[in-house]
Amino acid sequence: MPQHDSAFATALALILDLDPALLGIVMLSLKVSLTAVLIAALLGLPLGAALALWRFPGRGVLVVVLNALMGLPPVVAGLAVYLLLSRAGPLGELGLLFTPGAMVVAQVLLVLPIIAALTRQQVEELHLEYREQLRSLGLSRARMIPTLLWDARLGLMMVVLAGFGRASAEVGAVMIVGGNIDGVTRVMTTAIVLETSKGNLPLALGLGIVLLGLVALVNAAAHLVGETARRRLG
């Protein structure tokens, strides 16, 4: 127990002193996850809205697949991206494997279904509520998309935050496609696994504290957005 107390004290010191190794890992983690969530949001928000508004053959199957992909195992996503980006894969010539770019692709694959599926649900509910008003304004379905997305913005902020929480806590996929290379692709989750196995508890604990703090901030932001939405709706 005293050894663990010492490791915890050292971990706090690493955080307060802005240890370069710890700071580099944290910054890379944020860069990868924020980039992935931004790309997933840019793709997933209009995709979810389009699925909510249009009816076409196979739509039901697509919705079921999208909902199923919300629970896609990270290691499966990592394997799929690995096969895609490996030398023998169709995108192997890009040389993205074992780079932060590959990690972004893997996280987009995990986050995109969450954002798209939850966006579809929210936009579909709003469309049912305001369908007659929107039709009276003469809006086409394509022109309804930005209107409904804007009206659902508070709820969609929670959706994006949920996606960021999924991305920032991911281990398996980023380890497969990133390789956990020191100074290149080592992020908080993979570094915690490695440093714990090496017995470097102070750094592992320090990264764990930062990651918990980040998760707490995301949940606090989601709660604040939810409360704001509830007050607006009365």
TrEMBL record:
> What InterPro entries does the database record attribute to this sequence?
ABC_perm_TupB-like, MetI-like, MetI-like_sf
Family (UniProt): Belongs to the binding-protein-dependent transport system permease family.
Which SUPFAM superfamilies does this chain map to?
Answer: MetI-like (SSF161098)
Question: What is any one GO biological process for this UniProt entry?
Answer: transmembrane transport
Bilayer topology term: Multi-pass membrane protein
Q: What name does the UniProt record give this protein?
A: Tungstate transport system permease protein
Instruction: Specify the ABC transmembrane type-1 domain's residue ranges.
Output: 26-222
Q: Which keywords does this Swiss-Prot/TrEMBL entry list?
A: Membrane, Transmembrane, Transmembrane helix, Transport
Organism in which the protein naturally occurs: Halomonas stenophila
